[in-house]
Description:
- Helices cover 69% and strands 0% of the residues.
- It has helices at residues 8-19, 31-34, 41-53, 57-68, 71-105, 112-121.
Amino acid sequence: MKSKRPLSREVLPLLNDYLEQPGNAMGGSLSLFVDQAHCSVADISFCKQWALDIDDGWAVRLCDILLLMTLTQRTKIQKDLAAGRFMRIASALARAEKVEKVEKEISPEFTTDELVKMAHKAGF
């Protein structure tokens, strides 16, 4: 008989979508799971109750999905989620450094063509 447990590769995009919503960048109702790596049934149940208390239906549904998973699956998806968030932050910081580098080189006398060349040189 085939397992009815959700697959990490199916759940991870749902969690990422939830975290991209306004107010959820720090984990929203799932912060205990997302940011603090608490993956037990009790931890996810706590997140679900919190989500119910604040009427966060999306988080309630995600908790229901997470509760169908094994502890090993939840731990893996939390690590994958954390790694993905780290890579997005690192990428954003790298882009910010490139922007700062270009901004330092910009002065009012540069033409648009010169500015475009600088941007390309910086990796944009």
